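Dear all,

This email documents one entry for the complex benchmark we are building for the journal club exercise. For each entry we list the sequence lines for every component of the assembly. Then comes the predicted three-dimensional structure of the complex as a token string, followed by one or two observations. Please use this as the template for your own entries, and keep the labels exactly as they appear.
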Amino acid sequence: MSLNEAPKFVRADGPDKVTGSGRYTADMNMTGQLVAKFRYADVAHARVTKIDVSAAKATPGVLAVLTAADVPDLRYSPVVPDRTLFVKDVVRFEGEIVAAVAAVNAATAQAAVDSIVFEYDGLPVVTDLEAALADGSPIVHEGWESYGVSGDTVQRPNVASFSSIEKGDIRAGLAAADHVITSRYVADASHALPIEPRAVLAQWEGNKVTIWTSTQVPFDARNGVCETLQMPSSRVRIIVPHLGGGFGGKCGFHFEAHIAALARASKRPVKLVFSRREEFLAPDRRREGMIVDITTGVTNDGTITAREGWIAIDNGAYTADAAFFPQLAAMHVAGPYVSPNVFVESSLVYTNHQPSGSVRAPTAPQACWALESHTDEIARTIGMDPVDFRRKNTVDEGLEGPAAQVYGEIGLRRCLETAVANSAYGSQLPENEAVGVAVGWWPSFPGPSGAYIKVDADGSGQIITGAQECGTGSVMTLRYLAAEELGMEPEDFELVYQDTSAAPYDTGATGSQTLLNNGRAVIEGAREVAAQLRDVAADQLEAAAGDIVLADGFAHVSGSPDRNVSIVELAGIAAEGEMLIGKGSGTPPDYPTVSATCVGDQGVAGWAGPQFSCHAVRVRLDRDTGVVRVLEISAAHDSGTIINPIAAHGQVEGGITMGIGQALSEGTVYGDDAKQRNAGLLEYKLQTAADAPLVTTEFIEIPDPNAGPRGAKGLAEAPNVPTAAAIANAVAQLIGEPVRQLPMTPERVWAVSEGSSS
Amino acid sequence: MSESATPQNFDLEVNGISYPISADQGKNLLSVIREDVGLTGTKEGCDDCECGACMVLLDGQPVNSCSYLAVQAQGRTVTTIEGVMQGEEMHALQRNLLDEGGVQCGFCTPGMIMSAHALLDRNSNPTPEDVKIGLSGNLCRCTGYAKILAAVEKTAAE
Ligand code: FES
Ligand code: FES
């Protein structure tokens, strides 16, 4: 569907956002509120010898100072519980919290923080992934064997989670090849970087706490508070005001418990607002650095016989939600290609860097960049057109992927043809321009989700949903789904959302899952209300409930549009007796089982609703400086049925722009001390409006029967996957060989270009 | 240590209303607008003059209010996002941003609107390149800019 044909999408939160009246967490204030500040370790690896907060406690205007001694002594995090709220005996990254202070104003809080005596003995830092895996490396988590990991998680010294995927006979497959091509690619870490820095405000009433917080996952945040402060969920309420973006950076449980504990200790509301610098240093959600070794065997005619991979992922100091990264990265390094023989090993390696966590399509842009650069290397080696190579080897209906999942009807090859056809690929270009092509994929994530639907006496609808709006518009789209079931208009519905005490559970704005899962819940809830409306209408119209049709604000008898009654009137009647209230949850789609051997299985080798994409990118290179400029991007995406085209286009455009940043400018620079050297927007450069290329997007709409409403799959993360890879392939054409480090900064491009021409 | 060691008393005109302010001499205009005037539509994204979320108009000129001393704004007129509505009607920029899908999380939106407002005030017929340059001081992480640029161009064409 082209955007021009699409119905206009009205954001329920739009007027709040364009007028400045919408409240974000930092805009909220409470009478009597105190300001929170943290004392950070500011050293990456050290054994604590002294923490003395007596001067801070004695500072006039300071009402609470907390350290590890003041909260329950336990480790948390899903799958690999390796984290504590405050530094205990060992510091493992610079942004760890030594103490938290609540004071009457920011200056007093800062003075108290500065007065805290924190002494330590420095320990050798672990920064290099291969050195961390070598015998004799300093161990980031002494005693890791006792952490009690869940599921099939496999651990080793300095490895938080190991996975492998094995299919066929890799040795025989490589032996059968005419060419064996091996490459190494290394990606730097980068940041999610939502423009809203995070904020948390907590207030206690009696033994219950309400926390307003800029999280993408309110229920995870609640569960984190419950776990770390040892409270039942009935006493913890999380409310998210408008959320100023997240991109995964605001997933997980972060600082809510610290602020709740400060508010309890000070008997005052307490508010935390991060500076941009803190936003860079303290969260445990940055995009992971990665080393990828990849070897492919091919025959002379361009058929893949074997693919082998070795991946080291920089976990940083704590595991957050990253235990599934190795298996996911393995799927991306094996990629959406048919190979009878596959063996990929993947390790999540502890270092003394900031922890990694799910940032928009975790592991995928880096792994895709490595694989797709390697794929162009293969094509060059055997003298085949790189698009032809993909035409021949990509997965398609009835074919088997790397973990031996057999696909139904999928649109990868159509994405390839469409993106290439819409680009200047193959046409004559100036000598400093080229078009690079890359394909990508990404899973959908089925999960439990719930919603209530009500219609009030005046005919106004309400959707009370656990879903979280991150900006994508997916929660906004829920109104369309409910309206369609009830014969009402989207504008008839109020959305009540982002409040854990009002709505049933949802996973949150994570895994591109809102429409997939909560859409199902809203439709089911709306159907309950529709059945109730039909019963009331059947009474009024003296017809069978099964013959009642709900459309255009009326209930009418099927075949007799004149025998009708308005939904407003029916709502009024129902409000006097049995009210119009529905609930929905529904059964999530199945995760396909796979037959490859998966060591350290984390459940992400079999993909429900797999999404496919191809980007073709035209770039221009300034050969004197190494500066790459992206001129045009042609994107094609199979995300199943597109329910909200204008929002879908927005996701692709936004994801592509983030992908350009990852490709060219966004990379964290670490010093030898494992501390970030570019923790600010002056040194860490995002794309600006002046950089914006022309983006053309087409959706290949193939409804997926095992996915979301009407066959919709996820979308928000997928556009982030192949952009850097496509840019890399264009650059490699221009300078004769790939840039093997990400981001492909001007210095790196220039160095490779000089090296290959000299 | 206290925040109001040397409070300064002055009047600040914001969106046509004059407010008596008593604030530290070093307090920036953004903080005074948000905390003393009480208008929170103007956002803080970096406090470093890098993101444009705090953009306001000072005598019609766009400035990053995080990097401007509030006392220096006395005697001048400040316009914030709350001053953009024309009575009960949205300004065309606001309406077009919504119609074109140029709003996602909305955190950059107030600053974006102020920059676009200033751009259209000084150039009612901008080229697409003018619009890109005019908005290049405002970071948006959500949209990829395309729909924001389209909304501003559409407004200019109206
Ligand atoms: S907050 Fe002023 S430019 Fe970012
Ligand atoms: S809409 Fe989110 S930063 Fe622009």
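Observations: Residues 290-445+596-757 of chain A form a domain with the Aldehyde Oxidoreductase; domain 4 fold (CATH 3.30.365.10). Chain A has three domains: 14-123+198-273, 290-445+596-757, 451-584.
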